[in-house]
Amino acid sequence: MNLNINGAFLALETDPERTLLSVLRNDFQLTGTKYGCGEGNCGACTVLIDGESVRACVTPVGTVAEREIVTIEGLADGDRLHPVQEAFIEHTAFQCGYCTPGFIIETAALLSRNPNPTADQTRAALSGHICRCGAYTRIIDAAESAAERTGETA
Ligand code: FES
Ligand code: FES
Predict the structure, then answer these.
(1) Residues with CB under 6 A from ligand 2
(2) 99 CA distance to ligand 2 middle (Å)
(3) Which tens digit of pLDDT belongs to each residue from 60-94?
(4) CATH 1.10.150.120 occupies which residues in the chain?
(5) How far is the centre of ligand 1, averaged over its atoms, from the C-alpha of 144 (Å)?
(6) Is the CATH code 3.10.20.740 the one for domain 83-153?
(7) Is 128 a pocket residue for ligand 1 (Cβ < 6 Å)?
(8) Beta strands in the chain, from DSSP E residues, in sequence order
(9) For the domain with range 2-74, which CATH number is right: 3.10.20.30, 2.30.30.40, 3.40.50.880, 2.60.410.10?
(10) Rounded to the nearest whole angstrom, what is the distance from the C-alpha of residue 26 to the centroid of ligand 2?
């Protein structure tokens, strides 16, 4: 199958039922996408598929062939971090950082479909993500800060 990952077209011969998470991490060493629960419940493995957030641990790789896959490694624009990444750094919105890629990708997906989310909409979008370190206050602050910036430039 042909995969489009972070703007690169990559050929892969594999079982189409394997999870996208396994392929990203084990075949392409894109380890920024994390294995948390493996059941679609924690958000650690979230990536963008055609701009929408998807949980890679429950996504068969065969279903995303030819579609645009973006992982945390592909979110920046060259040397320029994505505004959500900048906001997470400025707010130190992490402790161990394990959940961070999933939260950032989810926030980026939210802002691409709605550049001006309300605080409630931001919280709702992130509500399916788990941070085992309990850094939620800073994570929400960062996401809201990113939303304010995106809203200003939209
Ligand atoms: S590892 Fe995919 S949702 Fe938890
Ligand atoms: S910062 Fe450790 S899991 Fe969220």
Answers:
(1) 94-99, 131-133, 135
(2) 5
(3) 999 999 999 999 999 999 999 999 999 999 999 99
(4) 83-153
(5) 23
(6) no
(7) no
(8) 2-5, 8-11, 46-49, 52-55, 68-70
(9) 3.10.20.30
(10) 22
